[in-house]
Specification:
The complex is a heterotrimer of chains A (347), B (83) and C (457). With 347 residues, chain A is an alpha+beta fold. Chain A is built from 11 helices and 14 strands. Among the domains of chain A are: 5-114 and 330-343, Rossmann fold; 142-200, ATP-grasp fold, A domain (Dna Ligase, domain 1), CATH 3.30.1490.20. In chain A, strand 1 (4-9), helix 1 (21-29) and strand 2 (35-42) form a beta-alpha-beta unit. Chain B is globular and about 35 Å long. Chain B is an alpha+beta fold and 83 residues long. Classes of the chains: A alpha+beta (347), B alpha+beta (83), C alpha/beta (457). Strand 5 (56-57) of chain B pairs parallel with strand 1 (9-10) of chain C, so a sheet runs across the interface. The complex binds pyridoxal-5'-phosphate.
Chain lengths: 347, 83, 457
C-alpha cells in the first residue's frame, strides 16, 4: 500500500445528529506514518464538514442515490479524474446500498471500498431480526412480522406488554395495550405499508459496540460503550468505554458466523436477568467511532489496510473508562465559500 | 410589469444571488442573470423582450410569457418591487 | 463581401431557484435530464409529427432483447423452459406476435383474450387459460382445443367434471395454488391454498375422479416482486405437491408454472432508490427458481418443464409515451406545473410508479422542480407529483419511459380518445399497430332510440 493515499469520505453532516464522516476523517488523520488527502463527498450545501477545511482538503457535491447509480457514477468518475481516489468511505445509511452495488465498478476504476456483502446487508434489516438471531444463535427480542391486522390478536399471545410496533424500515412505537397496538399499526401502515413488526420490549440498559470484521470471520476490532447522556433525539452526547467481555464475545460470535466485512455498530440491551439482546445492527461505523480510535483501536485505518489486502492483526486491548463528550461549535464561514459549493459544486 | 431590483441585491456571474436583507440565497440561470442586468438598467419590459429576442432563437411572445413568470418569482422572493 | 449573420444563442426560460438546505444539488445529475431525442435511432419529434401527439411508441428491438435476456437466464440454468406471453399485460396483436415469434405460448385470463390468441394463430394446446371466470361455453372450447385449463376454485373443478359428460375429450388441467412466500400482501384469493391442504385435496379429487388429466401445477404469487427468494419458496411448495403426487399416485406432473410477477425497471412511488438500481435481475430470479427445482428431488427424466408467465418485466421498458407541453403554470404556492397532453387516462401505472420523464429537445443545465399534469379536467390527473426537469415551453416534447406494461390494456377512453400506437421494427421502420380512435369509432357502438333522435334548442 502506498504511503500517500487519497480517501473520499461522505457523511459530513456533523450536526446535532451527526454522521460518521468527520469522526472517520479524524481517525485517518491520526493514522501515523501515512500521508492522507481527504476528499469530502456531500449531498447538501450546508453539511458542516464541508467547511472544516483543516480536516477536509477538497469537497465535491454529488447527487443523491435516489437519482440512480448512473448519475452517481458519472459524478464519481469526474471527481476521480481530478483526484485519483484510492478508497471511498460511504457513511450514510441511505447510500450504502448504492455503494455496495457499484463497488465492483469502483474497484475497476482503481477505487477500493470495504463494505458488507449484499446478503449481509439485507439479512440484518430489523424486520428480519428474528430470522437473523435464529440463524446465528444470537438472542434477539422476540419479534413477529405480520401482514394483516387480523393476525394481531394471535400474535400478541406471544408477548407481554409493552410491545414495540415497528415499520419495515422506519418508525417504532411502544404500545402498552391492545388499542395502542391497533392505533400504531394503522399509523405505520398508512405511512410505510405492510408488513409490520411486533417486538417484545426489553427493559434494561442499552449498550453499543463498534466493530470491524475482515470478511473472513475475524473480528479486527471491537469496543463497547455505554451511553452517558442522550439528547432528545435519542443520540449519545456522551459515552464511556466499558469492560464487559460478554459484549465482545457476542460481537465475535456474530462476526465469526456471518463473516461480516467492514464497520458495524451493534445496539444491545441487557435485561434484568443479565441476558443480552441484539436490537439493531447498523452496517457502518457509528458517529462515536472516534472514541474507539482514542481508546487504541483505529478501525477506520484498519479497514483501509484490509481493503488493500494487508495483514492486519486484531486489536487486543482498548482503554477502559475513556469518555467522549460531544460539543457543538459555530464555525465561521464566508459567503464566498457557500457560493462556491452551491454554484460550482466544489470547495 | 416593470420591476426595480432591490438596491442591495448583487448577482454574481455564476448566477449566485444573496439577499442581505433576508439571508436567502438563490441560483439563477444565465439568461435570468442577463435579464436582471437589463432590469438594473431600468429598461422597459418591451425593451428587455427586444434585447433577448435580438440575441436568442426565440420570439417575443415566448419571452413575454416567461418574463412575466420570472418577474412574479422575483417579486415573490422579495428581490424586486413592482413600479 | 457577404454580411456575416451572427448565430443566435439557444433560448431557455429564465429560472431562479432557492438554495435552501436540503435542496437536491444539481451537480452530476445532468444525465437525469438528458434529452431523449431518438428511440432506436428514430427521431421522436418526427414520430410525433407523423403520428400525432400523444403517441405510444414500442421498440421491437427492446422487446426481443429483453425476452432473450430472460430466456437465456433460465435456459442456461434449467433444461426445460417455456415462456407464455401474458396477454393482459399488452394484448395488441403485433406485440403478441413478436413474443410468439420468439417462441412464447399464450397465457390468457378471459375468453376475449383466448379468442385473440386463437386469432393470432396460436394453437390451442399452447394456450394457458387462467382466471376465475370461465363459462361452460368457454371451457368446452378450451377442452376441444386441448388448451391448458388452470382451475381456480372448487366450483370450477366440479363444473369441468360435469362438462366431461358432454364431451368425448379428457380436459388437460392444472390447479392454481396460493401460498405464503413471506411476501405481503399474500394473494390468497386465487386458487387453492397450499398451507391449509386445499391444494392437496383438489389434486386428489382430480386424480381420483379420473375425468381429466392433471398435467401441471400453477401459481402466481403477486406482481412486482422485489424478492427473488419468494420464488424459491413457491418452487419448493409446488415441487412438494408434484413429488407427493408421484409418491401417492405414481403420476408425473408435466410442468410447474410459476406465473409472472418479476419486477420491471420502474420506480415504485415512495421508494428512495430508483427501480433500475434495486430490482432483482432475470439472473437473480432464475437462480432462485432453477436451483430450487433442480435440488427438489425430481429424477432427471421426471424433471417438470418450467413455465413462466412474466408480463411487465418483458415489455415495460420497450414502451414509451411521447407527447407535448400544453402549458406552463405557476401554482399559488410558487410551484411550477407543466400541463402535458398525456395524463392518467393513458397512464394507469402513474398511480403506483414514479415514471421517468425526459425532455426531447436539448436544454441547458438549469432545472426546476415541477408537477406534471395531464390534460383531463380532473384533480387526480397527475403524472408526477414532483420531478426535476429543465424548463420546458409550450409545444416542447417529452417522453415518459417504461410504460409498455398494462397501460395499453388498462387505458381509459375518458375525456380524450386513445392515441396511435407505433412500433419501431428492428430495422428502424415505424408501423402503426393500433389506430387512434375517432369519434366515429365510438359513436358506431351507440344506438339512439327513435324518440330521442330529434330535439329543438
Ligand atoms: C395468472 C397471471 N399470470 C401472469 C401475470 C403477469 O404478471 P406480471 O406482469 O407481473 O409478470 C398475471 C398478472 O397479474 C397473472 O394474473
Amino acid at each position: 500500500m502506498k504511503q500517500q493515499l487519497t480517501v473520499a469520505v461522505s457523511g459530513l453532516n456533523n450536526t446535532d445528529n451527526p454522521g460518521p464522516g468527520i469522526p472517520v476523517i479524524r481517525a485517518l488523520r491520526d493514522w501515523k506514518g501515512n500521508d492522507i488527502r481527504i476528499i469530502g463527498i456531500s449531498y447538501d450545501n450546508l453539511e458542516p464538514g464541508l467547511f472544516m477545511r483543516d480536516l477536509v482538503d477538497k469537497s465535491y457535491s454529488v447527487p443523491f442515490p435516489s437519482g440512480g447509480t448512473e448519475n452517481l457514477m458519472l459524478r464519481l468518475q469526474y471527481i476521480h479524474e481530478i483526484e485519483k481516489i484510492d478508497f471511498i468511505f460511504p457513511n450514510f445509511d441511505a447510500e450504502l446500498f448504492t455503494f455496495m452495488k457499484i463497488a465492483p465498478e469502483l474497484e475497476k476504476m482503481g477505487i477500493k471500498t470495504f463494505l458488507p456483502t449484499a446478503d449481509q446487508f439485507e439479512e440484518r434489516h430489523k424486520y428480519r431480526l428474528s430470522e437473523f438471531g435464529e440463524k446465528y444463535g444470537l438472542s434477539v427480542p422476540l419479534s413477529i412480522t405480520i401482514g394483516s391486522i387480523s393476525e394481531v390478536p394471535a400474535a400478541l399471545n406471544n408477548f407481554e406488554y409493552p410491545v414495540v410496533v415497528k415499520g419495515k424500515f422506519y418508525d417504532a412505537y411502544i404500545a402498552y395495550n391492545l388499542e395502542q397496538v391497533y392505533s400504531y399499526f394503522h399509523k405505520i401502515q398508512a405511512k410505510w405499508g405492510l408488513p409490520i413488526i411486533l417486538q417484545q420490549f426489553v427493559y434494561g440498559n442499552e449498550y453499543n459496540v463498534v466493530a470491524l470484521g475482515d470478511g473472513k470471520g475475524n473480528t479486527i476490532g471491537a469496543v463497547p460503550m455505554r451511553k452517558q447522556y442522550i439528547t432528545d433525539k435519542g443520540k449519545a452526547w456522551a459515552g464511556i468505554t466499558i469492560d464487559e467481555p460478554r459484549l465482545i464475545e457476542m460481537t465475535h460470535k456474530l462476526i465469526a458466523a456471518n463473516k461480516w466485512r467492514g464497520g458495524m455498530e451493534l445496539e444491545l440491551i441487557k435485561d434484568k436477568n443479565g441476558t443480552l439482546y441484539i436490537v439493531e445492527i447498523n452496517p457502518r461505523f457509528p458517529a462515536w467511532v472516534y472514541l474507539a480510535v482514542a481508546s487504541g483501536q483505529n478501525m477506520p485505518a484498519a479497514a483501509i489496510q484490509l481493503a488493500f489486502g494487508e495483514k492486519v492483526a486484531a486489536f487486543e486491548n482498548y482503554d477502559i473508562g475513556k469518555l467522549f463528550v460531544r460539543y457543538s461549535w459555530d464555525n465561521i464561514v464566508t459567503l464566498s465559500e457557500f457560493q462556491q459549493i452551491s454554484t460550482l459544486g466544489e470547495l | 410589469m416593470q420591476l426595480r431590483i432591490k438596491g442591495n441585491i448583487a448577482v454574481s456571474e455564476s448566477g449566485f444571488v444573496f439577499d442581505p436583507s433576508t439571508g436567502d440565497s438563490y441560483s439563477i440561470n444565465p439568461i435570468g442573470v442577463e435579464i436582471i442586468q437589463l432590469m438594473k438598467q431600468t429598461l422597459s419590459e418591451k425593451a428587455i423582450v427586444d434585447a433577448i429576442v435580438e440575441r436568442y432563437q426565440t420570439e417575443p411572445q415566448t419571452v413575454e410569457k416567461d418574463l412575466y413568470d420570472f418577474c412574479n418569482l422575483l417579486v415573490k422572493h422579495q428581490l424586486a418591487d413592482r413600479i | 463581401m457577404a454580411t456575416q449573420t451572427i448565430e443566435k444563442l439557444r433560448y431557455e426560460r429564465p429560472v431562479i431557484t432557492s438554495l435552501n438546505a436540503g435542496v437536491t444539488n444539481k451537480f452530476g445529475t445532468k444525465s437525469l435530464h438528458a434529452p431523449l431525442s431518438h428511440i432506436d435511432g428514430v427521431s421522436v419529434k418526427e414520430i410525433i409529427q407523423k403520428y400525432g401527439s400523444p403517441v405510444f411508441i414500442l421498440s421491437e428491438r427492446k422487446i426481443r432483447q429483453t425476452y432473450r435476456e430472460a430466456y437465456r437466464a433460465f435456459t442456461s440454468r434449467y433444461p426445460k423452459v417455456q415462456f407464455a406471453w401474458s396477454y393482459k399485460t399488452n394484448y395488441i396483436n403485433a406485440v403478441c406476435n413478436v413474443f410468439h415469434q420468439e417462441g412464447c405460448w399464450a397465457e390468457v385470463v378471459s375468453i376475449f383474450e383466448y379468442k385473440k390468441a386463437i386469432g393470432n394463430g396460436v394453437q390451442g394446446k399452447n394456450i394457458i387459460f387462467n382466471g376465475p371466470e370461465k363459462t361452460d361455453e368457454d371451457l368446452l372450447l378450451a377442452i376441444q382445443n386441448d388448451s391448458l385449463i388452470h382451475i381456480d376454485h372448487l366450483d370450477e373443478l366440479y363444473q369441468i367434471i360435469e362438462l366431461t359428460t358432454k364431451i368425448k375429450k379428457r380436459p388437460r388441467v392444472a390447479i392454481r395454488v396460493n401460498m405464503d412466500t413471506g411476501v405481503y400482501p399474500m394473494w390468497d384469493r386465487f386458487g387453492f391454498n397450499y398451507e391449509t391442504g386445499q391444494a392437496w385435496d383438489a389434486i386428489n379429487k382430480i386424480i381420483l375422479t379420473d375425468k381429466m388429466d392433471l398435467v401441471g401445477l400453477h401459481c402466481h404469487i403477486g406482481t412486482f416482486m422485489l424478492s427473488a427468494n419468494a420464488y424459491a419458496v413457491a418452487a419448493i411448495k409446488l415441487a412438494d405437491l408434484a413429488l407427493g403426487i408421484k409418491e401417492k399416485h405414481k403420476q408425473n406432473i408435466e410442468y410447474i408454472d410459476l406465473g409472472g410477477g418479476f419486477a420491471s425497471k420502474n420506480t415504485l412511488k415512495g421508494s428512495f432508490l430508483p427501480g433500475s438500481d434495486t430490482i432483482p435481475t432475470f439472473d437473480d430470479y432464475a437462480d432462485a427458481i432453477c436451483s430450487t427445482l433442480l435440488n427438489a428431488g425430481f429424477t432427471k427424466e421426471n424433471l417438470p418443464m418450467l413455465i413462466l408467465e412474466s408480463g411487465r418485466a418483458l415489455i415495460d421498458e420497450a414502451g414509451f409515451l411521447a407527447g407535448s407541453v400544453i402549458a406552463n403554470k405557476r401554482l399559488s404556492d410558487g410551484r411550477r406545473a407543466i400541463v402535458m397532453d398525456m395524463g392518467v387516462n393513458l397512464l394507469f401505472t402513474s398511480f403506483w410508479y414514479d415514471h421517468r420523464i425526459s425532455p426531447v429537445e436539448e436544454s441547458g443545465n438549469h432545472t426546476e422542480n415541477a408537477v406534471i399534469y395531464g390534460p383531463l379536467c380532473m384533480n387526480i390527473d397527475i403524472v408526477r407529483e414532483s420531478v426535476t426537469l429543465p424548463p420546458l415551453k409550450k409545444g416542447d416534447h417529452a417522453v415518459i419511459h417504461t410504460v409498455g406494461a398494462y397501460n395499453m390494456t388498462q387505458w381509459m377512453q375518458f375525456i380524450a380518445m386513445r392515441p396511435n400506437v407505433v412500433l419501431i421494427d428492428t430495422e428502424g421502420k415505424t408501423h402503426v399497430i393500433r389506430n387512434r380512435e375517432t369519434v366515429d369509432d365510438l359513436n358506431k357502438m351507440e344506438v339512439m332510440p327513435e324518440h330521442l333522435k330529434k330535439f329543438k334548442l
